[in-house]
Amino acid sequence: MTEEKKNTNAWQVALQQLDEIAKRINLEPWIHKKLRRPKRELTVSIPIKMDDGSVEVFTGYRVQHNITLGPAKGGIRYSPDVTLDEIRALAMLMTWKCAVAGIPYGGAKGGVICDPEKLSLGELERLTRRYTSEIIIMIGPEKDIPAPDINTNSQIMAWIMDTYSINKGYSVPGVVTGKPVVIGGSEGRQEATGRGVTFITLNTLKYLNQGIEDRKVVIQGFGKVGSVTAKLLHLEGAKIIGIGEIYGAIYNPKGLNPLEVDKYRRETGSILGYKDSEDITNKELLELNCDILIPAATEGQITEKNAPNIKARVLIEAANGPTTPSADKILESKGIFVVPDILTNAGGVIVSYFEWVQGIQGYFWSEREVNLKLRDIMDRAFHHVLELSLKEKVSMRTAALMLAVSRVAEATKIRGLYP
Amino acid sequence: MLKKIECIIQPFKLEDVKEALRKIAVDGMTVTEVKGCGKQRGYTQKYSPEAPIRLLPKVKMEIVTDEEKVEEIVQTIQSLARTNQIGAGKIFIIPVEDVMRVRTKERGRIAID
User: Fold this and answer.
1) Shortest CA gap A46–chain B (Å)
2) Smallest CA–CA separation between A210 and chain B, in Å?
3) Among A23, A306, A318, which Cα is nearest to A191's?
4) pLDDT at A5 (0 to 100)
5) Structural domains counted in chain B
6) Residue B46 lies in a domain
7) What pLDDT sits at residue B47?
8) HEC letters along chain B
């Protein structure tokens, strides 16, 4: 493997990150060794009858990285780019994310190599049901609880819940989260990640002794996370001066109204051409003169190329891995306050946790209750990471990982090694 | 989770308690002069079951704080408000669902920081 290829392999990057943290916290070698390997990995073949009568065989994975703190938790993605190494890396990331949030879960991830855009609804349903059956030996409310991820949604979660339940002979809502509310989904789950990002932003400003009123915010991504974040921050009094989506971005130094932008997008299919705004490129968007930059789209958006031009003082990572490691170093040297993804976007998994708890109890909460409890956990997680970062004089990213790895390590040590 | 610590103490203990709380970084509090009685119905000398209730002057102090600080604050108040006599007071710990800072509209924990 060439050096470059090795660096871009997500699993190698995740291992490298763990090794660095292990050194910092003096992780016991046996625990380090254990954490470097996923607990379980399953590769399955998924034969599906296509609409034209032919049979296609797809490949799917489910990886459980660690289950020391509780059942494994993590999304399932459908994408042509899925690889086992990517799933492993994301499973490890879930272990850390749950540990930072302080919720009783381990980490897992799943994926199917397929292009959902080329599948009919029927094919997608058969694929989901067969994949669920193939990984059924691994999942369950007390074992491993999947959730939506790239190209999977609440309908797919409903099919997983149904397939599992049919196999058991009774309804098991707690086997999967991100379900529609009518079959045991949680109020507030759709907005959870964006709401969590908003809480983190408010906490960050509080720490930096700045108010939210008229703060200039740029948000890249206007999907499930970005649009909710934009709306909530707008309602808090922030000035959303730039919004980006896949086709480009819009800019108005006087502030955009995200509620109106969302309406416009629903009418036209894109945010571009919105009144009172100027169309710009995503590259220009990231380099706008603003106070807070929130990448809420995909990974690898802030690189060593554009990092030197970023003018924001605060970077809130709503997307997974939006900053490359080399860009991260540049941002740090520029004194930009970066709140890492595993802390910022934990809102989704936290409300997934609530959904699982509600499903197991068979008692469902109001949206207000969900939101208050989410804020409570996010505020506390932010403060724990901030305290550690100030105490150890490390970045918020390093502090979050140190906190996560030490929590898992402590539990591992106290449980001991079997036999 | 946020909690409200509501305590009723002897008025002459207020200064000590207030200063001790400042030392453990409690900055916000609301103090009210109140009247009240406990089990003795306001009588400190002899037991008089037929007499009407007497309300004695007390001070009520209210502090909203994060759960993590509750024990420290409660211990501080207790250690300074004690008089070794009846009528020294009570400390109540009450869950707070939400808070809003009027000036900034901040909610929850950041509204009291």
Assistant:
1) 46
2) 11
3) A318
4) 47
5) 1
6) no
7) 66
8) CEEEEEEEECHHHHHHHHHHHHHCCCCCCEEEEEEECCCCCCCCCCCCCCCCCCCEEEEEEEEEEEHHHHHHHHHHHHHHHCCCCCCCEEEEEEEECCCECCCCCCEHHHHCC
pLDDT for B39: 79
CATH of the domain at B58: 3.30.70.120
The structure's pTM equals: 0.90
Q: How confident is the model at residue A243 (pLDDT cuts 50, 70, 90)?
A: very high
Interface test with A, best of B2, B110, B112, B113 (most A CBs within 10 A): B110
Q: Which domains does chain A have, with CATH numbers?
A: 1-36 (no CATH), 38-174 (3.40.50.10860), 192-344 (3.40.50.720)
Choose the mutation target among B98, B109, B113 for the interface with A, i.e. most A CBs under 10 Å: B109
Q: Which residues of A touch B (CB under 8 A)?
A: 202-203, 206, 211-213, 236-237, 372, 375-376, 379-380, 383
B84 touches chain A (CB under 8 A): no
Total length of chain A: 419
Classify residue B47: in a domain, yes or no: no
Can you give the residue range of the structural domain that contains B83? 2-41+52-111
- Which chain B residue shows the shortest CA-CA distance from A375? B108
B68: nearest CA in chain A?
Answer: A380
The answer to whether B97 faces chain A, any CB pair under 8 Å, is yes
Question: Does the residue B90 lie in any domain?
Answer: yes
